[in-house]
Amino acid sequence: MTTETTSTPDPNTNPAPSPSPSPTPIPNPSSLIHPRREPFEHGLLPIPKLIFPDPTPTLIQLKQQLSTHNRVNSSLLAESLQISTDHARLILDTLASVLHSDSDPLVKARPDEVDSAGADLRDLILFLYIQSYKKLLPRTHKDAASVADVWPSTSAFDGYLSALSPLQLVRSNNRRFMPSQADEEAHQLSYLQKHMANILALLAEPVEGEGEGEGEGEESLVLSMEGFEHLGFLLHFGDKGSEVVTLSQAAPFFANSDPDMPAIPAPATQVHDWISQNISSALEHITERISAKENGPANSSDSDVAMTDACTSSIKTPPSARGSCFIEGISKSSFVKQPSDLKGSSSVKVLNCHDSILYILAPLRYATIYGCSDATIVLGAVGKAVRIEHCERVHVITAAKRVCIANCRECVFFLGVNQRPLIVGDNHKLQVAPYNTFYSELEEHMADVGIDTTINRWDETLALGVVDPHDSLSHPAGVSDFQAEPAARVDPDQFTNFLIPNWFGAESPGSTKDNPFQLPEAYMASQQRNQKNLGETKKLLREAPLEENQKRELSSALHLLFKDWLYASGNVRQLYCLQGD
Questions:
Q1: Per-residue pLDDT, 244
Q2: DSSP conformation letters of 16-80
Q3: For residues 267 and 271, what is the distance between their CA atoms, to the nearest angstrom?
C-alpha cells in the first residue's frame, strides 16, 4: 500500500503551492530548493516495463529482493525486472548520465567497466520511480476562445497529432504557449512533493529493534544521513554556479553531527515535513515570479527567452535555468560560440533555429536541440548526454558520451559516441554516419568531459517504441505502440568531411590537427578514392593542351558551376556570415 495522500497537487496540471501551512519565507532565492532537471530531461526511458501502475510496492519488493547487493549490474537488473540485457544496460548507462555525484563508481567507469561498477541500489530505485513522471502539457492561452479554432486536438480518436511532422507538431504549439522554464520547474517540484512520502519510504529503514510486521507504518521509519544524501539525485539547494550545499548540510537533522561519529538517523516524517515546507516555499516563489512576468512588461532576462533572428542577441543565460545557455531563433545565419561565450554554462539548449549553421565549440555536460529545421549544428564535446527532438532536415555533428534522437525526420547524425545512440518516438528517414570533423581544441575538450576517442558506436543504434508514455501530447492515450523506425547508415560514397573554419589562424590554442575518431574501413577507402580522383582531375586540368583563352573559359565555367552549387546548397550564406565575422 502506498503512503500517498490525495490532498497533494496533481503534477500533470500547472501546479500551485500546497495549501498546508508554509514555513517562514526564505528571502534569498539562492537558498530555495530546486529540482535537478537532468533526470527529468535526459533520464526518462520509454520502456513499458519500467512504467509501474503503482511503483511503491513494486520497488519496495525490488529493494528487498536486491537488499544483499549494494550495487546492481545489468544481468541482475535484467533478471529482477524481467527485461532484456540490452534494456538493463541502457538503464545503467542512462542513470550514469544523470547521477548527481561525479565521484560515483558508475559515473567514473569506462564502458567495459560498467557492469563491474554497477549502480547503487538507492539511486537505481529513485531512477526507476521517476519513470512514472509525465511531462508538462502546454499552458492554456489567457484568451483560450480566441485560439480554440487553431489549437490542435489531442483526441486519441482522430490521430491528428501523430499525423503531423515533428516540426509541424512544434509549430502547432506556438512557443508562447509552451511551458516556460519556471512552469517546468514548478511541475517537477509538484511531482516530487506529491510523491515524496513514497520516495522517502523507499530510502528509509525501520527503526532498529522494531519488528517488520503488520501495523508498522511511516512513523517507524528513519532516514540515515547517507540515505538522505541520495535525495540529491532529485533535489538541490541554490543556483548552480554558487557554492555547493549538500542536502545534509542544509537540513537541520544532520547539521551539527560530529564528523567523527555516525549521524543519528532522522524520522522519515520529520524529513518529509521539512522537504514539503521547502518545496511549498519554492512553489510560492515561482508562482509570484510567473505572475509578475505575466502582468508586467517583457524582460529579456526572463526564463522564457525571446525569439530573435539576430546572432548577437540570440544567446541567453536566464537565472532560473541555473547553468543552461539558450540559443534560440537563429534564422538564415551562421552562429559561432566558443567556451568564453557561454559564461561558464555546462549545458546548452538550441531551440527553433532554421536555415542556419551553428558552431558550439565548447566542452559541455548536456545539450538539447529542439524544433530546428534545415540547419547544420556542430556541438563540441558533450560529456553526459545530447538529446535531439522534433527536428527536420538537420545535420548534427557531435562528439558525445550518449545521444538520444526523438521524433525527427530526414536528419543526418555524424557521431563520435561512446554509447549506443538511442532512437525513440516517431522518426522517419534518419541516417547516421561516423564523426567527420575537428577543430583545434576538440581533443582537449573531449578530455575535459571524459569522451573516449577509441570507442565510437555510431552505427549501433538502439530503437525503442514510438509511443512515449511520458509525453501525452505527441502520443495521446490509446495510440498503439510499435518499434521506432531505425536509422540507415550513410553510404560511404556519399560521406564527406565537414570543415570548421579556423578563426584563430596560426594562433590557434589547441593541438587537434585531424579527426580524432578512426573512420571505418569502408569510409576511409571512399575518402581515399575521392582524394585520388580529385588529384587526377587536377592533374588533367593542369596538363590539358589548351590555349590561354581556353584555360580562362574553363576556369570561368568551373567558377560559375561552383557558384551555382553554393547558392543551390545554401552554403553561400555560410561564406558571407564568416566573412562578416
A1: 57
A2: ---SSPP-S----GGGSEEE-HHHHHH-----GGG--SSHHHHHHHHHHHTTT-SEE-HHHHHHH
A3: 6
* 3 state DSSP class of 171: helix
For 134, half-sphere exposure in the C-beta direction (CA atoms, 13 angstrom radius) is 19
In angstroms, what is the C-alpha Rg of the chain? 26
39: closest CA among 99, 104, 106, 105?
Answer: 99
> Greatest CA span in the chain, whole angstroms?
102
CA atoms within 13 A on the CB side of 356: 25
113: Cβ contacts below 8 Å, ≥ 6 apart: none
DSSP class per residue in 93-134: HHHHHH-S-TTSHHHH--GGGHHHH-EEHHHHHHHHHGGG--
Report whether pLDDT(328) > 80: yes
Question: What is the full DSSP assignment across 382-397?
Answer: EEEEEEEES-BS-EEE
DSSP 444-493: HHHHHHT--TT---TT--EE-BS--TT-TTTS-TTPPP-BPPPPEEPPGG
β-pair type (347-351, 334-337): unpaired
> What would the 3-class secondary structure string for 268-319 be?
HHHHHHHHHHHHHHHHHHHHHHHHHHHHCCCCCCCCCCCCCCCHHHCEECCH
Name which of 314, 336, 334 is nearest 325 in CA terms: 314
Q: Which residues of 501-534 are buried (b: 16+ CB within 10 A; e: fewer)?
A: eeeeeeeeebebeebbbebbeebeebbeeeeeee
The secondary structure of residue 420, as a DSSP letter, is P
Scanning the structure block, which residue is given the C-alpha cell 486536438?
A: 153
| pLDDT tens sequence across 451-504 | 999 999 999 999 997 766 767 555 544 555 566 788 999 999 999 899 888 776
Q: How many CB atoms lie within 10 A of CB 443?
A: 20
Pairing between β-strand 412-417 and β-strand 221-223 as defined by DSSP bridges: unpaired
Residue 340 scores a pLDDT above 80: yes
Confidence of residue 168 (pLDDT cuts 50, 70, 90): low
The C-alpha cell of 248 is what? 545534509
Task: Report the candidate in 33, 56, 228, 235 with the shortest Cα–Cα distance to residue 131.
Answer: 56
Which residues contact residue 14 at a Cβ distance below 8 angstroms, ignoring those fewer than 6 apart? 136, 139, 183, 186, 187
The phi, psi pair for 577, rounded to 5°, reads -65, -40
What does DSSP say about strands 395-400 and 376-389: parallel, antiparallel, or unpaired?
parallel
Provide the percentage of residues in the chain whose pLDDT is more than 90.
49
- Confirm if 479 and 548 have CB atoms less than 8 A apart: no
Could you tell me the three cell numbers for 576?
558571407
